[in-house]
Here is the input.
Amino acid sequence: MRRPAREAAPPLETLAERCRAAGLSLTPQRLAIFQALWGSLDHPSPETLYARVRPRLPSISLATIYKTLDTLVELGMVAELPSTGDAKRYDAYMAPHHHLVCDVCNDIEDFVDEKLSALRAPKVGGFTAQSVSVSIHGRCRRCSRASA
Amino acid sequence: MRRPAREAAPPLETLAERCRAAGLSLTPQRLAIFQALWGSLDHPSPETLYARVRPRLPSISLATIYKTLDTLVELGMVAELPSTGDAKRYDAYMAPHHHLVCDVCNDIEDFVDEKLSALRAPKVGGFTAQSVSVSIHGRCRRCSRASA
DNA sequence: GTAACTGCAAAAACTTTGCTGAGTT
DNA sequence: AACTCAGCAAAGTTTTTGCAGTTAC
Here is the structure.
């Protein structure tokens, strides 16, 4: 099951709490970037996020996007995804879930599956496992159609 | 089970065949880079690979490392791994397997597990699944020890 | 009012490209 | 001899950093 768009309001109270706890201000930029990321289903790069936030905050700079993403990662509100292309990719959806990765256009979609979520990390000597993440590679709907 | 170091000789005949089939020369650089990657268990970045190949080919350039990695990926001899961090990461081990990712030092180790390899992609509307890859995140032996 | 933050510009890090002489077949 | 290739240097991207004025609390 794909994650439904905006299944819930973004956890803004959590963001506010964590900022406060860390002695950080809750600036309009942080708010806007977090909300834009929460509202995106495609796990945007910093550049893409910049484009999406600009209409709301026209004077924002790309450097702020980068710094803010680092901050949000440190606050545990956002995750950097492993990816192959040229730019970093981010996800604001922190509940356990997996990913559908399109090998053609590099799009990444969230994906929830109970069986996969039930996977436990096998024991491996020396390595301390914390989480298991599954990526399903293939072609997204659009690229499947395009190549047919 | 971790992949044993150098469990087999690097598939050099395959490399030679594929080069020939594609009309490419089997140059000393391509050979050295492929062998260095095969012999590495840590999925090095281009820069790291550069350092490892230099003793053997002191005049090689970083640009050649990049170009050759692209070529090897096109030949299907090497894969670019999804990763966080600043540089690309490569793997010469093409048999199906999974990865142990250290969230502290970003090291990536190969990992073979029959149960995980038996995983089949669940059906998802529109998405054409091709393969399933599992990453186990946590702390590698060294970083586990360091933080204890 | 104080500490933290943004935006700018410059720099650093990473990767790609164009060219020329050298190597492969 | 024809074609491909490596190495160099320059350019292109992506990301980080330092600083001065501004904003959040």
